[in-house]
Amino acid sequence: MPEAMFAARASDATNREAAVTVDVAVVGAGFAGLYLLHRLRKAGFSVVVLEEGGDVGGTWYWNRYPGARCDIQTIDYGYTFDPELDTAWKWSEKYATQPEILRYFGFVADRYDLRRDIRFCTKVTSATWDDATGRWQLATDSGAAVSCRYYIMATGCLSAPKPPEIDGVKDFKGKVHFTGRWPHEGVNLKGKRVAVIGTGSSGIQSIPLIAEQAAELTVFQRTPNFALPAHNGPQPGDRKAMLENDPAAYREQARLSLAGVPYPQQMEVSWQLSEADRRARFETAWAAGDLVHILTQLWADQAVDADGNRLVADLIREKIQDVVKDPEIAAALTPHDHPFGAKRPCLDTNYYATYNRPNVTLVNLRQEPIKAITASGIATDRRSFDLDVIVFATGFDAMTGAIMAVHPITGRAGKSLSSVWAGGPQSYLGLTVAGFPNLFMITGPGSPSVLSNMAVSIEQHTDWVVDRLIAMRDAGFATIEATETAQAGWARHMADCSMLTLHRLANTWYTGANVPGKALGVMPYTGGVGPYRSICNEVVERGMLGFRLTGENVAEQCNDGEIVRLQPDVRLVLGMLAQMNLPPIETMGAQGARDFLNEFNKGRPAGRPVGEVGDGVLQGAEGPLPFKLYRPATPGPHPIVVYFHGGGWVLGDQQSDDPFCRDMCRRTGMIFVSVGYRHAPEHRFPAAAEDGYAATRWIAEHAAELGGRPGPVLVAGWSAGGNIAAVTCQLARDRGGVEIEGQLLVCPVTDCTYDRPSYTENAAGYFLTRGLMYWFWDIYCSPADRADPRASPLRGKLEGLPPAFVATAEFDPLRDEGIAYGEALAKAGVPVEQLNGHGQFHSSFTMVDVIITGVSGRVKMAEALRGFAGLPRQDSEQRAPEISVAAE
Ligand SMILES: Cc1cc2nc3c(=O)[nH]c(=O)nc-3n(C[C@H](O)[C@H](O)[C@H](O)COP(=O)(O)OP(=O)(O)OC[C@H]3O[C@@H](n4cnc5c(N)ncnc54)[C@H](O)[C@@H]3O)c2cc1C
What we know:
By secondary structure, this protein is of the alpha/beta class. Helix content is about 35%, strand content about 15%. The protein contains 27 helices and 29 strands. Strands 1, 2, 3, 4, 5, 6, 17 and 18 form an 8-stranded mixed beta sheet that branches. The site of flavin-adenine dinucleotide (FAD) has 38 residues, from helix 1, helix 2, helix 13 and helix 15.
């Protein structure tokens, strides 16, 4: 598709101007470009803004199609940098129309006198870094060249319309329009035969209005989308009141939130709610007409877990069936190929009801593909449609399209951005690219951008960039460039984040799947707006970590490294724990620590339902011990796993790892019997170890009564429980009496020395500290006994033990002794599988439904246990669908 077909205005010949030399060139005069200009100018930089369009507004300048509106409430979708602006402008509706939003940008431009530094109808065509001068040279289609020290691309995530992929557009004798380049003078569709191709946001907003005007409307749909009623009208009083009561707090909550809109984080999970409760919540959300509400406020697992998500999706599907009268059309409009929210859902006004109109036809392109556009209309492989107008609502080459359209962008050593990004966009923080000094992207790929209220994200990026330029100027630096290490680290963090949500499970413009040939991958940052902001701030606090700064009269500064090495959810949890400022557990005394743990555990999500949970008593080494039994919902008899909880031989009980036992019971299809073994200081070494062996023996002997499969059992344990499981295997081998067919050791204690590197590297800050481990050991076992293999199984004989799965966590003092145990087992000829959870901490695998990224590890553990028990691999997707994640 020739560029000219998209151009609303050709570049203006009268615009040809002389070359300019400025401190900063900003490309784009949309939301971002305007704020950049305001801030940079105030900071004393010389600035020029280059804009292809004929006026300010960006998105809202180009997208003038019928029904175009924002879908974040206007109360949240505006600048917040100037409280007076916030009160000077009054929005008329809950979701403003495009003309009103465009007027807003005009108002802003006038208020801050911005237009005098903007060159309209000027498209930047290429950009070249000149190492000798330390400046960028920009070429434009107006002929004017621009030389700048800093080049900021505020070119928009959704500003490069995607060309149609259908042959014959040029042959069509009627009119062709693109929603993203709608004529300024409007289009009269009255009495016309109109086709709309595409049912994304623009299609869903425009179709009801086009249907009202057109004689006939034919909608060509490839992928049905979830759409929710906007219930537009006056601004909701509750949100207005919240803002007016405390504007600063309201805006701050938005900045720290996950999506850039001030909603709290939902903590209740779907299985804690009854069906009636869930429906009531859903109906409230449906009536609210607010995307962020329905995407974040129903239940905590809706965005991260396929089961929790399916509950919402099913309720929306019901709504579609209720509205659309023809069942066949309703079925075609009902999405089934992606989780709700994984593809951008839309807000609509009468969208589904439009298909009940007699003048509207839906063509399902999945069943009836378009063959060609002809002179008279559109031909599918089944029929032909005669048309007067074709509207392409086919969306955008999102996130990278407008950046890559400036071609080439040539960085250091002649490297072009298109070659660096050939396999997908690489960046540090979504703001900068290694090898491209002094180039910034606003809401670039790798930042929250389109997964957020863009107003909040744009202000955050702009403030961060301008503050950095000011700080550099003050310190005498003239160039800033991301390092390769920092960029690679960010890619890894992005990949980690993408495992948190369900976005990776859909083919969407978030992943580049809508543009043929585009590299696939989740492009926006899925870790949330608030966490992202804190990371950007941390980069600064840690001396511009990951950036190289240079200047003529100042020594180079490069504090290299990766900004986030923890898994994103681990970082969040550790951050929350740090904020609680808890006293060290080892200062609480044994009973105080137990009370603390009980209270702490009350705050965690309830474990998921299993077939049956029961309590019982078994015979330990010196008396009865309580146990908790978790039975799968499937028919038995099941293999039995004897489980030992964590807690440093001092804390916890048979139910303190309840969510983990439930989760593993569901994933393995096995009975888990969690043993309440005796604790120190009341019962010191070897009480716990002896109880472990005795309990395992008792359970094996009573397998049939417990509903289990008679014969060998399996053992498993976390932390000190992993120690007991490992010891139990050694005792069972040496003493006989119980056959164990596999052992799962999760972050186990295996040795009594503290000199391995993980003890030093992770001494503090990761919940299980070195100090706490000293305390546990001191309470449990006197130094003289610690070398006993019943305390330090690594020192025991390892030959002839059952096959093992040893899971360790990268940020755990116990990491290296766990790894050492796995290696020693392997050396002794024991079949071993080892997993070192990257970015994980000691509690990652057992904090079920809190550390979402721990799921992939549990999937592997479950598969290992099934393998030990001789069970076939299972389709874990079916048993516990949230685990559809890639390998650790
Ligand atoms: C129909 C629609 C509705 C939306 N609704 C919402 C919403 O409700 N909430 C929300 O958060 N986000 C929404 N968005 C996303 C929206 O893009 C952002 O909110 C925001 O407007 C982006 O501002 P920006 O300045 O970053 O980019 P844009 O507004 O896209 O501006 C970029 C500008 O750069 C110019 N440009 C690009 N390349 C060049 C070049 N080479 N040379 C010169 N100029 C160039 C473009 O012409 C454009 O004017 C919506 C997007 C669309 C399309």
